[in-house]
## 1
Amino acid sequence: MTNLKKQHLIKSENLNQTHYFQSVLQEACRLNLLTDSELENIQLQCIQLLARQAERYTGGESSSIMEETAHNIFQSIFYTVGVYLKSLPDADISIEILKQKPLTELYREGKKLVETQLEHAKQIYNQVQDNCIATGNHAYNDTLQNGIPAFFSAYEVDYAAHETPASIDYPLSSDKMELTGIEYINDYLQKLLMENQFCKNFTTHDIHCLLHGYDAHYQDLLINIFGVVLTNAIGCNLADKSARRLNIEPIGRQYLQQKLVNMTKNQLDAILHDASKQLFEEFNISGGLLQTYIAAAIPDISPRLKNALENKRLEAVFISLKENHPQPAVRFEDGRKMDDELFRKIVDEIRQCRYVSDKIAIIRREIHSMADLVDILEGYCLFNDEFSQLFQSLGDMELALLSKRLPVNGAASDLHYTENEKEWHQRLNSFLKEMDLVRIGAQIFPSQ
Amino acid sequence: MADNTFLFPAIIMNKAAISTIINCNVITLRYGLALSSEEAVELVETRAAALRSNGRIEFGAGIINKLILKFCDSSFLSKHNYAEILNDLLETFYYFKNETLDEVGDDELLSLMKKYFDHNCQGSIELLQHRELELLARNIRYGVRNYTDLSQDSEESVDEEDHYD
């Protein structure tokens, strides 16, 4: 008898969360809870409220507004009244309130709630920032640093309360997309805060290695970090290991494959729920909201796990951490290009030299940028074999940089080069061909 | 839902507008101008059509009575063309509310229309629509500071147009 629940005339599952006020009215009409005259009265009040808001919008200077603007203001009014109605215990009470109280009062109450939620969202945003995960994932960082702040500066409580002027790319584990405006942002931030709090139980390095194991280019992916972390933490528990390191080795996966492969979906659900409860104990998760949120993520994991077990591809669900060894990157900083007058002097000096060794000595002493070196090569300073002798004297890095300036498709691009350019291209090409192959492979073109 | 609610008060609003128009006759009769109830109905219908075709919604008393009182002392109105010109002016008004991007208030636009109609256009609706108000709208769209001054407009705004091209 204690389990008896009050029966409502308007079922909450029949109500649309996006257009709450309208759906309450529709349901009330369908169930004959509102007479025609009562509905007309509410509609008339809506028009009066729209007229008042439109007058405020134009500053009293215009008696007419564009339809799009009116539609937006109307939606904003509906949304604001809807926010108030949602704050009531149930939809049956909403109908009574709508009959008894003037709509302007409901709108005023709704606006107060929207403003309170806005302030609340700003506070949560600060907490989210304090708790954020240090990750290279662009969607996460961009949403947090640019997407959400844009909302706070662009949100209009009076005329566009229903809009969500934010660029939110980062997907949550469970996102209530049917909400809009401040309700959506509030919900998003609250969930993001919980996800961050959970991820704070693991080191930044482990999360990074886990995501790197998930995909080498995880920075560019639209993935939910919490989801990946939670799945592996549960996997660790299932493999009878501590979840704190997050790592699941191939041998652990073999063990899990044997342990779970014959389980039905219900058994898998149950074992995943048990494992998540172990997580609550291991990480001292006492907040009911976070527990519920984690429990809500289990139904997403279970079919993926079942599928992976059937296909013997458990590595797609339970991931091994992968250390990220950064590729040694070569960074070249060119020297400053000399001014024209000095360059002309040096060119003249080189041209006057009788021996190539003198030319090379001057070049090595005076030329400090690739642009100048190329100008020398094209400036009638060197002739015939002198080119190869100069190339011989250059270091691997200089040769590699010069070779990058060679035309890629040989004769096809001949038309685009001057005779002087073509000459040093040819000389360098034949020089590289005669060069020690080991030197070319290992030092000049390490990437190949 | 939203569309239904818009439709509802139209009948009440039209009745109110017709009686307001007829009441204006008391003042306009001083200039020998008056609208019959059929002409008042026609004016209200013109308003509805103009609002619809220009994608606008009007609240409250609207601007018909303001338009009548603003133009009734124009020397270019007579009892022969009064109703016809009022209809044209009403259509023009809503069209240029959109064209001026709602930057100009009702009263200011009516005053400018009256000024151009009486002086620059010498009572010609065509000139008002296609020359003066077009220039005004263009000045506003291109952000000309002194947008009501149509005399110096042409060169300046054309330059800006070229600039945007």
Note: The CA atoms of residues 197 and 400 of chain A lie 49 Å apart.
## 2
Amino acid sequence: MNTESCTTELDHPALDVESIRREFPILDQTVNGHPLVYLDNAASSQKPRAVIDAICRYYEHDNANVHRGIHELSNRASTAYEAGRKRAAQFINAKHTSEIVFTRGTTEGINLVAQAWGTRHLRKGDKILLTEMEHHSNIVPWQLLAERVGAEIQYLPVNDDRGLLDLSRLDEWLTSDVKVFAFTHISNSLGTVNPAAEFCKRARSLGIITVVDAAQSAGHGPLDVQELDCDFLAFSGHKMCGPTGIGVLYGRQELLEATPPYQGGGDMIATVDYHKSTWNKVPHKFEAGTPHISGVVGLHAAMDYLDRIGRNRIARYDHELGAHAYEELARLKGIRLFGPHIGRAGLVSFLMTDVHAHDLVTVADQRGFALRGGHHCNQPLMKKLGVESTARASFYFYNTHQEIDRTIEVLKEIQNFFTR
Amino acid sequence: MFDDLNDLYQQVILDHSKCPRNFHKLDHATCTAQGHNPLCGDNVTLYLIMENNVIKDISFQGSGCAISKASASILTDSLKGKSAADVTALFDKVHAMVTTGKAGGDMGKLAVFAGVHKFPARVKCAILPWHAVVSAIDGNPEPVTTESQNG
């Protein structure tokens, strides 16, 4: 983060949410005859005008392929693409710009690590440590790897409805036969904020490689990979005001060097012969084919936008909204809440007695509320909690306290509707 | 208060979802089938006793949203004494009704599901038990789903 945005952040401690909302064109609409209340940000965030304009500008003025043209437009496209990489490195405080690999999103980032790095470095009997609160995208790639190399997956247990990991027993799980520890920074279904730096420190002392799923944390607060001291970290653009189809995988330079290519194709090679090829340097080795250039341009604009708002302020406000919603829900009768009581991220996951999450979400939609109902790509966790699904409201810095109050009102109406 | 929703959640549907009929296992079932929508968690198992190609008895167990539960409950009420051919014909009519809102002839109690067509995301909930019963009669051992993607 540059000094300028830090100064701005300190000078203006509170967010001007009303003027921020005007920068998001999509928020100004009615859905089913009611003003839209968008509370599905953990699934995907909305995009500010600055991001939409940057993508338009790129296609209207600079569009061409990267790294291969001599002509002016190709130069502009290449410059914009590599500027996005530099900005992403700065955004998460990576030591080197070459530690930034562009992917389609968090899922592809984790798959790249599991398939390319994992297949090279794990062997039969090695252990992979995950947690019970992982998204399917941080379970299934490891299952595929485990099956391929004969490794074994273990899970750090989640306590109960409070959704905290059992840290008192971390030493039992982090043992020297664990080769990789992959965990979510913030749980998408519980709102738990995991002690990522502590996890990385403990893992580092045992030589265990760490993979952080930052899908829910990037763009919701400051993120510093050197401070975390993680080995790999993946996030998506679309959950942090950027476009879909673009994400970042951070990997420590020496680990990326020691990782074979993920996919083959143009741009990722140095030389190609009919029977043998040599690879381009890191990170280009991992970016086969024409990349998502406009995605990078949009992501760049999103990172600039978030830093203009101030990521510390966003984090503070996010937590405020989460705490407000949790307190109000806890006051309602017949609500079962999931996730930690305090220190939670900006989302709430809950169930209403005798009302299935999908019925609740359908009714809320008729009032203009966009909620999520389902297993949130956390089927094993849902099974462990003994539920099929939950309803979830997830917030971002353009949501308001009034929207939460209106959500509570509509939940009361829903309760009456189904118990009539 | 929610007039717009009364089409979907008719009193009959709410009643059947709260107090489902024929909601138990049949120990001597001649065919069973499971319907499962993993995305929303709707889960239904149908038990049938068929004699000479006619449904002598039918029941179900499972869990899910009000729509899927009520649909399974009303289905079991409607199919006792029906032949396999009747079930297939009725399936087509129910399918047409929940997707277009138009009932072909007198649908009896099943007509309460006509409102589902206004809620395209919920058609899969209403139709799940119907896919399961057809599958049970066909002797298909695989669980059926009405979700195209599973999240």
Note: Chain B has four helices and three strands.
